[in-house]
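Journal club prep, notes for RB
We'll compare a predicted complex against what the paper describes. Inputs for the nicotinamide-adenine-dinucleotide case:
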Amino acid sequence: MAPPKRLLVTGGAGFIGSHFVESRLAAGDRVTVLDAFDGFLYSSALKRENAALLQRHSKAEALTIVEGDIRDDALLATVVAGHDTIVHLAGIAGVRPSLRDPAFYCDVNVTGTAKLLVAARTAGIDRFVFASSSSVYGNPPRLPADEDVALVPQSPYAATKRSGELLLEAWANTHPAARLASLRFFTVYGPRQRPDMAIRTFASKLLQDAPIDLFGDGSMRRDYTFVSDIVRGIEATVRNLDDRCGHRAFNLGRGETVDLRTLVAALEAVTGRTARVNAAPKPAGDVDATYASISRARDELGWVPEVSLADGLRAVIASLR
Ligand SMILES: NC(=O)c1ccc[n+]([C@@H]2O[C@H](COP(=O)([O-])OP(=O)(O)OC[C@H]3O[C@@H](n4cnc5c(N)ncnc54)[C@H](O)[C@@H]3O)[C@@H](O)[C@H]2O)c1
């Protein structure tokens, strides 16, 4: 069994972060969560609920929760030291709002990541995993998108995630001992999912018999990945840092692509309800399709997703009910 780790998880009170921290605490690691309980994208109260849940399920000495901002240099100087790995999930997500406030996205996602890297280097921490996004692909020239395909970001959010990857790349090129990974998450869903995301919105509306806004003609496709598979992917990445130096990007997706109409039909099948659907214009910045090639993660991390869309949707519906 691997020895317990001392992990710093930024954004650990968020959707993906809280699932990851829960899993690591159960495995015996010591975890510090650094989270601003930010209220830009959705309510801070939900992040506080996640943090309270983590506290209820952990031994007091195993979990430390620090409320603070990754852009606060003085705070980073006190919080970062003493960990062996940083899993950097804090960030402002969301394609559409990034078109309205790109400077804010740059500040948190790019400047914040740069400051965290400096703090890691100062504290002598070489192991760093960054939450990137499938959005870096934009509308790529081929699908499924492998990690080497040309990147054509379509939104400021995507540009900030690509910038974060490049900061890690530059760090690796100047610090040979650095062990870094950027994980390109493909539309993550599951219990405690962000309320701004399609599956959570559609599922809630279906259960309330409220109309669902379906963007475009319903042909937009996404590669939906269940959160427990993402957690296992982050864990496999942290283990993989033992075996190599430098920076590597990995897709973490289900490796299937599903259009919006099929998604709604799958939700109808799971709930036994019939959706009322409104046609809505396709928002700017949204890409036509995401579809992950997962060969690299399979071959190098030994990771394969396990949860089918039907099983994942059943878990979402059960949690909402
Ligand atoms: N959910 C997805 O489908 C998805 C897909 C691709 C990439 N990502 C990325 O994965 C990460 C986690 O996503 P999520 O869905 O759990 O989002 P989330 O919004 O639930 O979690 C992000 C967390 O970061 C915290 N945060 C925001 N700004 C901060 C700051 N300045 N300092 C400290 N903490 C701050 C928030 O309070 C929140 O708890 C994000 O970086 C996101 O961009 C998510």
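Talking point for the session: The mean pLDDT is 96.
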